TrEMBL record, chain A:
Organism this protein belongs to: Limnohabitans parvus II-B4
One Pfam family per UniProt: FixS
Protein name: Cbb3-type cytochrome oxidase assembly protein CcoS
Keyword Repressor: no
Superkingdom per UniProt: Bacteria
Length: 45, 801
């Protein structure tokens, strides 16, 4: 089970990696106007 | 006074670093900058942007502010105490659900910067409401909240994975090294949760400790710290006294649910405030004004004055109430009147501030600016309502503090009791007690539901002046209608004129209109507009407008009297009103009659016909089906009243009442144990409206600030009355459900936790779910009003053209 010593720290690192992606998405405002993207197709321009 | 007119000049709020530290920084970090931005607000012109002078000649101002950093009822108490301690602050009203407050203060003794600083010393931030920045801050706050929630969610999921083997395996199945590795990994992932996601709880608990206050965040934060410390000891000393078990999974899950509850609460508040803010942000910053030389110049809306001519392009909002000089367009007044269809406006029509110009370019002559616009009155009304506290919420607030102290003592007691058996267990039992008893759900139960309803009603054109009234409305059993302007349309038509021999009808009408123009009574308005039309047709409008009466006084329910000075002649004393008031003969017929008399007696009688509102019969039918008793009390003659009553289907109609009679009748019904709602036009029946349990005012010409009614139907349509009553009943049901649920939850869980039967994770889950349930239950009320099926066909016909 030595492989756990690699995999578990790796999973911790993965969580931080995903969080970095989330940070980027949130701070670009992607979750603020959820309806807007769907409604874009209805606009003329 | 202006709403957000000076935002371009005052850049009041310094940028805040987007880091958790800003919660702790509050008081120390920005002393100079903070003081500077606040002293800017000490200029009367600046404070006028978020304050209104008080009505009662005391010289006080009433300011509305938004607080940042407050979470619960206990915070509201801290803030209220802090503000009241400032000399010169006369009264403070804070709403913990909307985080808004109204502060009444005297400019002779204090300045806005002074009382705002008193709040900042406690670590909160007061932001002048109506500030353009308030919206931006709210966005930032929401973004930080989502980020905190996401961190907690990701870490929680992964910590759960690491905790699963410990739950599933038999003792000895996992080697000590592997177990240590799993605990270590959980500890690493708990760090961001504890030090980042929990920061607001710690900051607010720390603030309370320093101020020797107790709020809901204190037990919660204490629970988090104890759990984290116990689990960390278990991770690094597996053989120590706390080594048997770690609780990272409970901790992260608890934080996640708590943040989820807070986030939903924030969204509820934003949705309700959204209705308000949508209104607040309707006015443009600048307008194009016509210069004397005929060119257009861009000026600040603050410099706009009555009489200016401005140009309004399609898509822009109107900056003030005014009259269209040229152009034709469609306007959207939905937010101000609830009228969802675009309305046509052309030269001569009136437009209102805050409504939107949809299709054409207009030139508008401004007639009202600032506080006297209808828009400003609506905004002021809504702000007052959102900080009024329903009685049930007050009761909860009063009990919150002693309850929290009792919780802290109980958890201390349980820790001491269990300590001899097992120190780790003793601490976790104490944590469970701390967490499970958080009265968040209880304190949210009433305001959340009522605010959600008020927001939904506002979107349909019903203004709620007091949240309390929603509670009263749900329990009424009798509805009393006034007739004129309520069951019938405002607009009356002069159909016949009888005059004393030798008096020309046009002459009589002109005299009557000189008195009528000073009164807002529907009859007076009908006479004045009829006279104007006639005069305009023959080109004598200036002559009519020059005919001014003096010393005009209005006797409620009877009529108007005044002195008319004709050219060169002696002043003539005129009376306009009921037949009795003018000692006039009564003519047969069921039309409304109004008489004119001078010193020598009767001059003329005008017969006016009124049109019953097309939706009135449907509304009456719907209200009857809801089990309400309906009555009419009117000042008009019995014949006219009976006729209207029959056409809408109300059996019990009483005419010829003056306001005292109406109040008397109302008192009698109330003494018989009835709960009475009064529906009137809000102008002539002030005392009756104030005497009723719940009152509705109708009519678009109503000066809102003087209205005493609890509800104002802004669209001037009766149809929403039915849905408002239905919604209020629904609201009361939801409040009761919420209170029962919250009380039941606390009663059931506290004994379990004290006995040590409730693990920390279950306590966290229970507490968070109880708050979630309360907020979600209240959110059901935030939906727009559904039209009443019986009325649909009618309301579509009655849309004004």
């Amino acid at each position: 089970m030595d492989i756990l010593y690699l995999l578990i720290p790796l999973s911790v690192a993965l969580v931080f990696f995903i969080l970095a992606g989330l940070w980027w998405a949130i701070h670009r405002g992607q979750f603020e106007d959820i309806e807007a993207e769907g409604e874009r197709i209805l606009r003329n321009d | 006074m202006s709403y957000r007119w000076n935002m371009t000049q005052v850049n009041v709020l310094p940028d805040m670093p987007d880091a958790p530290a800003d919660f702790l920084a509050g008081q120390a970090a920005l002393p100079m900058q903070g003081a500077d931005r606040l002293t800017l607000l000490d200029d009367p012109q600046e404070w006028a942007a978020f304050s209104l002078p008080e009505q009662d000649s005391s010289g006080c101002w009433s300011s509305s502010v938004v607080f940042e950093g407050m979470h619960c009822a206990a915070c509201a108490i801290t803030l209220e105490d802090a503000l009241r301690a400032v000399p010169g602050v006369a009264s403070v009203q804070i709403s913990s659900a909307s985080h808004r407050a109204r502060v009444v203060w005297s400019p002779e003794q204090t300045r806005p910067s002074e009382w705002m600083q008193s709040v900042e010393r406690f670590g909160y931030k007061a932001i002048p409401a109506n500030d353009a920045h308030a919206h931006e801050r709210r966005r930032q706050e929401a973004r930080r909240m989502v980020w905190r929630l996401s961190v907690a969610a990701m870490c929680m999921m992964q910590v759960m994975m690491y905790a699963t083997p410990a739950y599933l395996s038999q003792p000895g199945e996992i080697s000590a090294e592997s177990m240590h590795l799993l605990r270590w990994a959980s500890w690493v992932l708990s760090l961001p949760v504890v030090f980042f996601s929990c920061a607001p709880f710690f900051a607010s608990a720390w603030r309370d400790l320093r101020e020797r206050q107790v709020s809901m965040d204190l037990p919660v934060a204490l629970g988090m710290v104890v759990t984290f410390v116990v689990s960390s000891l278990g991770t690094f000393e597996p053989n120590g006294p706390f080594g048997a078990e770690v609780y990272f999974d409970s901790l992260t899950m608890f934080v996640f649910f708590l943040l989820l509850g807070r986030w939903l609460e924030l969204r509820l508040r934003d949705r309700t405030a959204g209705a308000l803010e949508a209104v607040l942000n309707r006015l443009p910053d600048s307008v194009r004004k016509r210069q004397p030389n005929g060119t257009w110049a861009l000026i600040s809306i603050r410099r706009l004055a009555v009489g200016d001519v401005i140009e309004v392009l399609p898509g822009e909002a109107f900056a003030g109430d005014g009259r269209v000089l040229s152009g034709q367009t469609q306007v959207d007044e939905a937010l101000l009147t609830g009228e969802s269809l675009p309305l046509t406006r052309q030269a001569g029509d009136r437009v209102i501030a805050g409504s939107h110009n949809l299709s054409g370019t207009l030139e508008v002559q401004i007639e009202q600016v600032g506080a006297s616009t209808r828009y400003a009155q609506i905004v002021a009304l809504m702000e007052n309502a959102s900080v009024s506290k329903p009685a049930m919420a007050l009761l909860v607030d009063r009990w919150a503090k002693p309850f929290l102290v009792a919780v802290l003592l109980a958890s201390l007691g349980s820790a001491i009791y269990w300590w001899p058996t097992d120190p780790a267990r003793a601490l976790m039992v104490a944590v469970a007690v701390l967490i499970v008893t958080c009265p968040c759900a209880l304190s949210l139960a009433t305001p959340a539901a009522m605010l959600a309803t008020a927001g939904a009603l506002a979107r349909s054109g019903v203004l709620v002046r007091r949240l309390e009234a929603l509670q009263n409305l749900a329990s009424i059993d009798t509805v009393i209608f006034d007739k004129t302007g309520t069951l019938t349309r405002d607009a009356l038509q002069v159909v016949r004129t009888h005059t004393r021999s030798g008096v020309r009808p046009e002459q009589a009408l002109a005299w009557a209109s000189s008195l009528a123009r000073h009164s807002l009574h529907p009859v007076s308005r009908a006479l004045w507009s009829e006279a104007r039309q006639q005069a305009e047709a023959v080109g004598e409008l200036p002559a009519l407008e020059a005919l001014l009466a003096q010393k005009v006084s209005e006797q409620a329910g009877q009529g108007v009297c005044g002195l008319l000075c004709s050219n060169g002649g002696a002043a003539v004393s005129l009376r306009l009103g009921s037949a009795a008031f003018c000692q006039a003969p009564v003519f047969n017929g069921h039309h409304l009659q109004v008489s004119l008399a001078d010193d020598s007696g009767w001059l003329a009688t005008f017969e006016l016909a009124e049109e019953v509102r097309s939706e009135a019969a449907g509304v009456v039918q719907a209200l009857k089906e809801m089990g309400l008793t309906l009555k009419i009390l009117s000042g008009d003659g019995q014949a006219a009243v009976t006729q209207v009553a029959q056409s809408v289907g109300i059996a019990d109609a009483q005419g010829g009442c003056n306001p005292q009679d109406k109040l008397q009748a109302l008192k009698v019904w109330q003494a018989q144990g009835h709960k009475v709602a009064m529906v009137g036009d809000g102008l002539n029946d002030g005392p009756v409206l104030a005497g009723a349990d719940v009152s509705f005012a109708l009519g678009q010409a109503l000066p809102l600030a003087q209205s005493k009614a609890d509800f104002v139907l802004m669209g001037g349509q009766l149809g929403v009355l039915v849905s408002t009553v239905l919604r209020s009943r629904h609201t009361l049901r939801v409040v009761k459900q919420n209170l029962v649920w919250a009380a039941f939850y606390n009663a059931a869980c506290v004994p379990l936790a004290l006995m040590g039967l409730l693990p920390a994770w279950a306590a966290g889950l229970g507490m968070a779910l109880s708050s979630l349930l309360v907020v979600l239950n209240a959110l059901r009320l935030a939906q727009g009003l559904s039209p009443v099926p019986a009325l649909q066909s009618n309301t579509s016909q009655t849309s004004p053209t």
